[in-house]
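DM from R.C. (forwarded with permission)

"hey, sorry to bug you on a friday — could you get me a structure for this? deadline for the figure draft is monday and I only need the backbone to look sensible"
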Amino acid sequence: MRDANPYAGVMTATPNRQARFVFFLILAIAGLVTAWVFNGIASVTGADYLGAWFGTPVDWVLSLDLLIVAVAGSALMIMEAKRLGMKRVWLYIVLSGVTAFAFTFPLFLALRERKLQARESAQAS
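My reply, with the result:
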């Protein structure tokens, strides 16, 4: 008989959730700071955002690459949030439009680790 949990047995060792939480949180902070700094510089210097994103074929490749990753990451966030019972996942996606996906995706992963840690603690009790 198959186990009802599709993720059962995937991770047999007890993961260090606190270290993962801190790792993802550091990445989120780095993503937010770099977005603020470089968007600030671009705004002050009057940079052409559309030209920078879609000016040359190389720009198109990088832009579409990031777009596809953001769509896949957003889908993962929605599916994981639903599976784990995390609320308001749409906020991460909306925030990525005004901050950076480099901030919101690692932030989601950090808070996902917290949720998994809480579930493991509840199961152990």
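R.C.: lifesaver. Residues 17-45 form the longest helix (29 residues).
me: no worries. The chain is about 75% helix and 0% strand.
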